[in-house]
Design goal:
Blueprint lengths: L1 H22 L3 E6 L7 H16 L3 E6 L2 H10 L6 E2 L2 E2 L3 H25 L4 E5 L6 E12 L4 E16 L2 H7 L4 E5 L1 E3 L5 E4 L1 H11 L4 E6 L17 H9 L7 H13 L4 E6 L5 H7 L5 E5 L2
Parallel strand pairs: 1-2, 1-11, 2-8, 5-8, 7-10, 11-12
Antiparallel strand pairs: 3-4, 6-7, 9-10, 12-13
Helix pairs in contact: 2-4, 3-4, 6-8
Length: 296
């Protein structure tokens, strides 16, 4: 039994070796969210994955969300929340809570977790070094009463206008692991909440990352018989959206992935964050635990 166990361990290490050699010195952006952010065992396995990546010479960058944590604090503070097309309407009072939760509680929890597991993490928002510039989002929707287009002001909700990679590059070229909250600053000096997938994708583009990993609460992209699809191209994604296979909340995630591929990221992985050590399994093993997307 001991020899069998030792052989299994040796096989795992040998399988990982060519991947470590291939990705050494490369940048991998990981969007951390979903169940992996709230389950204690998954949180620690994620932190160990990130620490091990750094130790073997890969440069991980963590971008995190925090929607449920924001919603929980708003509820405790009796601040009402309205959503339009899945986006939280964010007035000044709500934005104060968003900054407190994302830039404070959630960000520092992840930093502490990585440090506890042997890493050296540094927490950032896009306001640090002014490295994420935001552009305010307004959306058009159809008024049910008047059957006419209506412009909705979402408040402090933004998209990425530009990214200055200087701060992140400085950290990646040292022993530190950047942990980034998706808050940007507008030309007006105000803070803006930005979708974490979009921030992760844009950072991966600007840094010419080798990979972008998006952790989700699903096994990946599934066909209509609920079988996992992988090795998908940009054209495949367009076809799957057109025929309704990819629908709902998976559409913006896959659009983020294809934008990153078009922007120069080598590959994108949509992986199941409910699996322990999902990041290492996808990055350093032959089988993986999710959907691989490539340019062609």
């Amino acid at each position: 039994m001991k020899n069998k166990s030792a052989n299994t361990i040796a096989h795992v290490l040998i399988e990982a070796l060519p991947y470590i050699q291939k990705f050494k010195g490369k940048t991998v952006v990981v969007k951390f969210g979903g169940n992996a952010m709230v389950d204690e065992a998954l949180k620690h396995s994620f932190a160990r994955d990130i620490v091990l990546m750094k130790l073997v010479g890969i440069n991980p960058i963590v971008v995190h969300g925090g929607g449920p944590q924001i919603g929980s604090l708003l509820e405790r503070l009796n601040i009402s929340t309205q959503f339009v097309d899945g986006m939280r309407v964010t007035d000044s009072e709500t934005m104060d809570v968003v900054e407190m939760v994302l830039g404070g509680q959630v960000n520092k929890d992840i930093v502490s977790l990585i440090n506890l597991n042997g890493g050296k993490a540094i927490g950032l928002t896009g306001k640090d070094g002014d490295f994420i510039r935001a552009r305010k989002i307004n959306i058009n929707t159809i008024s049910a009463a008047e059957q006419a287009s209506e412009l909705i002001d979402l408040g402090h909700v933004g998209e990425v206008a530009s990214i200055d990679p200087g701060v992140v590059n400085m950290l990646c070229n040292s022993d530190f692991i950047p942990v980034i909250a998706p808050i940007g600053v507008g030309e007006d000096g105000h803070s803006y909440n930005i979708n974490a997938d979009l921030v992760a994708g844009k950072i991966a583009e600007v840094l010419a990352a080798e990979k972008l990993l998006l952790l989700t609460n699903t096994t990946g992209i599934l066909d209509k018989e609920n079988r996992l699809l992988t090795g998908l191209s940009i054209a495949d994604i367009d076809d799957l959206i057109a025929d309704g296979t990819i629908a709902g909340g998976m559409i913006p995630k896959t659009r983020c992935a294809t934008d990153a591929l078009k922007g120069g990221v080598s590959s994108v992985h949509i992986i199941d964050g409910r699996v322990e050590h999902a990041v290492l399994l996808e990055l350093l093993t032959d089988q993986g635990v999710g959907t691989l997307l490539v340019r062609n």
